[in-house]
Write the structure tokens for this entry.
Amino acid sequence: AQSVTQLDSQVPVFEEAPVELRCNYSSSVSVYLFWYVQYPNQGLQLLLKYLSGSTLVKGINGFEAEFNKSQTSFHLRKPSVHISDTAEYFCAVSIIQGAQKLVFGQGTRLTINP
Amino acid sequence: DTAVSQTPKYLVTQMGNDKSIKCEQNLGHDTMYWYKQDSKKFLKIMFSYNNKELIINETVPNRFSPKSPDKAHLNLHINSLELGDSAVYFCASSQEPGSASGGPSTDTQYFGPGTRLTVL
């Protein structure tokens, strides 16, 4: 079975500092990887996804993630965060089960302090 | 122009009641989903429909019954509500159920704003 582990439940950082949100997955088959963001009281919005090709994926709002197959990781990074990046971030893998089935990690709460 | 909409946004009800949550998407997608997000923010898929046909049915109590009158709508009906049903329910949609080769779908899922259900 596929699973996703987000290693940090909460990450506090100061504004303009860099940040890395960690994600590891396990799967016996090839998967696609996603990062979604959930702003307070809103639904989820796609930040970026890895399908194939270059292991460095760039997304919206200055975020990027790197797929590392040997370490089964897909960590999310941003070189300089802003107050508006405060949100819950979810890593997910996509598997096939008649339809696309997203398996989510438990989320990482990113808090940006001034 | 909302892509995926859900009603109501908040739902407070007593144990034992029956309630429904509605979802509509105007993206022309073929596949729709229901997810449950618990108090610890953990998201888990419940159901998925493709062109009005049920294709994913996770281990969910049969008190939960999804209904898809057409491919733009996927409603969730819950009978005999219990305290543990309190959660945020998200609807989502995507264009394709999965690739013909059997590999995972590459398509992005678009989420609604969520319905916060509180059972007292």
